[in-house]
Structure formats: structure tokens, C-alpha cells
From TrEMBL:
Gene: mnmE
Top EC class for this record: hydrolase
Domain of life: Bacteria
Subcellular locations according to the entry: Cytoplasm
Protein name: tRNA modification GTPase MnmE
GO cellular component, one term: cytosol
GO BP term, pick one: tRNA methylation
Residue span, TrmE-type G domain: 220-377
Subunit (UniProt): Homodimer. Heterotetramer of two MnmE and two MnmG subunits.
Magnesium listed as a keyword: yes
Molecular function per GO: GTP binding; GTPase activity; identical protein binding; metal ion binding
Length: 455
């Protein structure tokens, strides 16, 4: 059990209407009572949990703000300890003064992630849900937030438990057979063991594959928008982002330094790399567009190849098409509003996904974002489904999968059941590391080091 009472500013620093300091630990009531006086006659030392009281915060120099204290009584709080949340006005000065007062009253400033870590150590949440808290805070798009929320509500945890439970059941069967060898494993049972293990292995493979999708949602989709000068790349980017400002920079020349633009499209985040050359059509750099396309395409997970419907295809167009290779790509035939001169059959031959836009009129945006969803396989995404959210989790799932595969091998090769059992136990260990039931201290430290202070 932790004995120190910790305190931290839980809201972003800056000027805001309300700022909150969270105090957690066995001394939360007492320490808070030393800096807060209720105007309603409530005594924080005795007050019931889930109640709020209004009053003033003070230090040696006197009262310095009004405040509301919300009290959560252990164990029914986020951390599992007594927690007081003190909300006062949101200025940096006030919050820091209040935090100093709390520290002088006996609290220790919390380290990054320490509240969530205590929640984990007190069994309030497993490691996957703790990680989801950080993901939720960092989420940039609607879908990323939705899947982080699902993880926070335990989607990955439950999936992991479910697989773990089947493995534990298998392992106990195995031990029974190992302990009573005279009752030989019948062929039938060997077969069913094999098919069960195979199914579990497939489940783990499918689970680890969700990492890719989740990664795209969280980190954004590295997108290359390529095409000859003047086909409408900038206009399309502006249309996608919905704001002129996010792409166009008022001072010409400054765009050279821009490495990446992030554009929110229909719940997804597109990361448009190297937009410098795309912006200024009069610039000689723009002429490098075709040559630079290759590098952009190589680094992208998604290619938007833009063509001008009002012109016949040129060699440059064809060379850009050739550069798209096997990358997930969408042909965007722009300037639909003008008289059509482009030869679509060539494009249809090379691209599975074609979208017509008139970017200047803002037409075709929905079609384009729907196509992006299709190409990136994000269309039927169920945000409540379990999803592997980071490298650590994927590593655990992959190792569990490899162990199950070894178990299948051992069984096929008719090794001893002991050998099979060892592999199954190994897989169980990996899954318990995933949820944190058996994670080493180093792993736990690592997880919480990602957090910000106050969480
Ligand atoms: P980029 O060089 O590929 O980035 O092309 P721009 O986005 O800078 O557009 C080049 C020119 O084409 C600009 O004058 C745009 O206003 C114009 N343009 C872009 N999209 C359309 C469109 O859908 N229809 C028409 N008629 N003009 C467009
Ligand atoms: Zn441009």
C-alpha cells in the first residue's frame, strides 16, 4: 500500500475558467482540510464520499480563492484511495499557489502518471485500460478517441481474459493427463486439443493485426498527394480540411520548412507529408513535383493521385501513375466542372478506386473520404471491438501467439505433453503481462512514464 499522499494540477496550465488539483492518498482529507475552509460548515475529515462542498482555499498569507472540493472515499475512487478534487479559478498563479500550500500541508507532488499507476496497483484497472487513459487524452480524431474509450472500458482486457481463460482450461487438462499418464490421451482428445489450440492461435493473430488499424487511427494516415502542377492538389487539401487556413500559409516561402500537415477528415487524421512543393504553383520547386512524387509515395500508407479532367493525360501523369506501384491509392479526377478531355480508361485500368471531384466547388468531398475509408479498410470498423493499441501490447500478443504455435507444433510432432504444457503456460504468461497481472516492475514503469503529470 502507498502511504504518501500525492497532489497535482489535473487541468491544463494556462488561463481557464476552472482549474482542478487532485489529491490522492490516505492523507487526502486531512491535507486538503489544512488548505480549505468550507463555507457550508462541512468537515472534510468526516464528510461522506461523493459529496461536494464550497468554500475558500487559504495559506499562511490568508484566503486566496473560492473553491469547490469534491470528495471520493476509498476504495470507490479512481485511484482506489481517498481522493479530493479541489476546483478553483483556473489561473496558473492560483493553481501553483494552491499546490504549494498542499505540499506544505504534507502532500508530495505527483509524478507523471502516478494517479493512474496507483489505480493499477490498487486493482482498479488493468494495464491495457491504464494505457487507454493516455490514448484517450492524446486522441486526435473521433475514431481514435472511440477506440481508446472502448479500450478504457476494457474491450482488450476482456478479450485477453477470454483467451487466457481458454488457455488455462487447456493447461489444467494437460496437467491432469500429465499427472495420470496411465489414462492415455485418446486420439479424439488429442485432435480436439489441436483444433482448440489452432483456433486460439488464429484469434491471437487476428488480435495482433488490429494494431495496424489502430495505429492508423491514432497516429494518422501518412498520405501522399501527388500530381502534376495545377491539377488541384492544394485545392483538394483545402477541401478535405474544410478550412483554407490549415493549408495556405500567408507568407510565401515559409512553407519550405513545413514537414507535415495534419488534416482531420471524417473522423480520420490524414498526415500530409512534404506539402511544401504542393503549395505554391508558381514556384520552381513545384516543377519538381513529379520527381518528388516517388519519395512521397514511398513514405505514404495512402496515395491520392490527382488528375485534371479538363486535360488529356500527359507523360508526367503516366509516370506518376507508374510510381504509385502497389500502394493503396485513389485516383482523384479533379476539375469535373470543366469540359472533360481526360482519357479515363487508362486510369480505370490502373486504379481500383476512382473519385471525381470539383475541388474548387467543394464537390466530391464525401466520395473522397468514403474512398479513403474503403482503401484503408476503416469502413466497417467497430470502435468497440478489442484493439491492440501500442507496441508493448502487440509484443505480448505476438509472443503469446508464437507460444501457442509452438504448442501446436509440439502436439503435431507428438512431443511429450509436458512440452505442450510448457508452451501453453508461456502463452498464458504473455497474456498476463499484457493485462499487467504478471508484468515486471520495469514494464509497469515504462507504461506510466508515457503519462502527463496530473493523470
Ligand atoms: P496544385 O498545383 O495541384 O496544388 O493545384 P492548385 O490547387 O493550386 O490549383 C491550380 C488551379 O486550378 C487553381 O487556380 C485552382 O483554383 C484551380 N482548380 C482547382 N480545383 C479546381 C476545380 O475543381 N475546378 C476548376 N475549374 N478549377 C480548379
Ligand atoms: Zn499546389
Amino acid at each position: 500500500m502507498e502511504t504518501a499522499t500525492i497532489a497535482a494540477i489535473a487541468t491544463p496550465l494556462g488561463v481557464g475558467g476552472i482549474g482542478t488539483i487532485r489529491v490522492s492518498g490516505p492523507g487526502a482529507r486531512e491535507i486538503t482540510a489544512r488548505v480549505f475552509r468550507s463555507a457550508l460548515g462541512d468537515d472534510l475529515r468526516k464528510m461522506e464520499g461523493y459529496r461536494a462542498t464550497f468554500g475558500h482555499v487559504f495559506d499562511e498569507a490568508g484566503e486566496f480563492d473560492e473553491a469547490v472540493v469534491l470528495l471520493f472515499a476509498a476504495p470507490r475512487s479512481f485511484t482506489g484511495e481517498d481522493v479530493a478534487e479541489i476546483s478553483c479559478h483556473g489561473g496558473v498563479y492560483l493553481l501553483e499557489r494552491l499546490l504549494s500550500a498542499l505540499v506544505r500541508a504534507g502532500a508530495r507532488p505527483a509524478q507523471a502518471g502516478e494517479f493512474t499507476k496507483r489505480a493499477f496497483l490498487n486493482g482498479k484497472l488493468d494495464l491495457t485500460r491504464a494505457e487507454a487513459v493516455a490514448d484517450l487524452i492524446g486522441a486526435q480524431g473521433r475514431q481514435a478517441a472511440a477506440s481508446a474509450l472502448a479500450a478504457k472500458e476494457g474491450a482488450l482486457y476482456r478479450k485477453s481474459r477470454e483467451i487466457c481463460d481458454s488457455l488455462v482450461a487447456l493447461a489444467s487438462h494437460l496437467s491432469a493427463w500429465i499427472d495420470y499418464p496411465e489414462e492415455d490421451v485418446e486420439d479424439v482428445e488429442g485432435e480436439s486439443l489441436l483444433s482448440e489450440l489452432t483456433a486460439i492461435g488464429e484469434g491471437l493473430t487476428a488480435l495482433s493485426a488490429t494494431f495496424e488499424t489502430g495505429h492508423l487511427l491514432r497516429e494518422g494516415i501518412p498520405t501522399a498527394i501527388v500530381g502534376r502542377p495545377n491539377v488541384g492538389k492544394s485545392t483538394i487539401m483545402n477541401m478535405l480540411s474544410g478550412t483554407q487556413n490549415s493549408i495556405v500559409t500567408p507568407i510565401p516561402g515559409t512553407t519550405r520548412d513545413v514537414v507535415e500537415d495534419q488534416v482531420a477528415v471524417d473522423g480520420m487524421v490524414l498526415r500530409l507529408a512534404d506539402t511544401a512543393g504542393i503549395r505554391d504553383t508558381d514556384d520552381p520547386v513545384e516543377r519538381l513535383g513529379v520527381e518528388r512524387a516517388r519519395a512521397r509515395i514511398d513514405q505514404a500508407a495512402l496515395v491520392l493521385a490527382v488528375f485534371d479532367a479538363s486535360e488529356a493525360l500527359t507523360d508526367d501523369d503516366r509516370s506518376i501513375i507508374a510510381q504509385c506501384g502497389e500502394k493503396p491509392a485513389i485516383a482523384v479526377i479533379n476539375k469535373r466542372d470543366l469540359e472533360q478531355k481526360i482519357d479515363e480508361t487508362y486510369i480505370k485500368d490502373k486504379f481500383k478506386h476512382i473519385v471525381y471531384t470539383s475541388a474548387q466547388m467543394g464537390e466530391g468531398q464525401q466520395e473522397l473520404s468514403a474512398a479513403i475509408r474503403r482503401v484503408m479498410r476503416l469502413e466497417h470498423l467497430d470502435p468497440s471491438a478489442p484493439m491492440v493499441a501500442n507496441e508493448r501490447q502487440r509484443d505480448c500478443v505476438l509472443r503469446a501467439g508464437a507460444a501457442v504455435e509452438s504448442a501446436v507444433e509440439a502436439l503435431r510432432m507428438a512431443f511429450t505433453l509436458d512440452a505442450v504444457d510448457v508452451c501453453v503456460e508461456d502463452a498464458i504468461s504473455c497474456l498476463m503481462e499484457l493485462t499487467g497481472e504478471r508484468a515486471s516492475e520495469a514494464v509497469v514503469e515504462q507504461v506510466f512514464s508515457r503519462f502527463c503529470v496530473g493523470k
